[in-house]
Specification:
Number of domains: 2
Radius of gyration: 19 Å
InterPro entries: GAF-like_dom_sf (IPR029016), HTH_MetabolicPath_Reg (IPR050707), Tscrpt_reg_IclR_C (IPR014757), Tscrpt_reg_IclR_N (IPR005471), WH-like_DNA-bd_sf (IPR036388), WH_DNA-bd_sf (IPR036390)
Organism: Oceanobacillus jeddahense
Pfam families: HTH_IclR, IclR_C
Keywords: DNA-binding, Transcription, Transcription regulation
Number of helices: 9
Oligomer: single chain
Order of helices and strands: HHHEEHHEEEHHHEEEH
Structural class: alpha+beta
Largest sheet: 6 strands, antiparallel
CATH superfamily of the largest domain: GAF domain
Protein name: IclR family transcriptional regulator
Strand content: 15-25%
CATH class of the largest domain: Alpha Beta
Number of strands: 8
Amino acid sequence: MDNKNNVQSVERAVDLLFCFSMDEYELSISDFVDKTKLNRTTVFRILQTLKVKGIIIQNEQTGLYRLGYEFIRMAQIVNENLDIRQDALPYLKKLSKETKETVSLNIIRAKRRICIEKVDGTEDIRQFVELGYPYYLVKGASGKVLLAFNSKEYAEEALKEWESVHGTIINREEFYQELESIRENKVAISDSDRVFGAYSVSAPIIGPDEKPIAGISISGLSIRLTEEKKAVYKKLIRDTAIEISNYFNK
């Protein structure tokens, strides 16, 4: 995607909002500075603007910031208009019941993978997937299965962004070979890639224009993923993705 038309102040404001997570729902100015590498004055000015608009609120006693109530209203609008989330849910429930693992539905937003629906498995002993959290696309099968069907330029931007944050370089030849394999097989598998000790098996949901509109994933503990299960889950996830795709394309 082309960055030349991006508005820097808006991009920075979004970066600040992406700093929040289920574990870190209250942040200080220092937290924002550490996470975004923006200077303190810039962070303060953006936070003040977001406060005025009700996007974030500040605890006057502690000085910490959290997401504002305006997000509740916007979340309701999103939920009521995400037909794919509602229509795919029965398929997710069926697959989770069959595998006893967590099944999630993911989309791309602003070079991130967002989980918009999930059904937790009965075998889980910890959470690997958070609803609404912006995960990087370049790590884990759930992100790569979406990234594989985008342009190489888009993938390169996602790679560079991850590398700039984490300070490590991803082998381009191996990475693009993996994406090519995902495109050919319409399935992605990862093991201890995004989260150590966790696996994911993912497949794309294809829309009427032959482009992916979402991805569906089975996730769980690596210790449970035998070679036999891996083969079974690859077939199950592909078949389920095809079923959902056919539902939207009929």
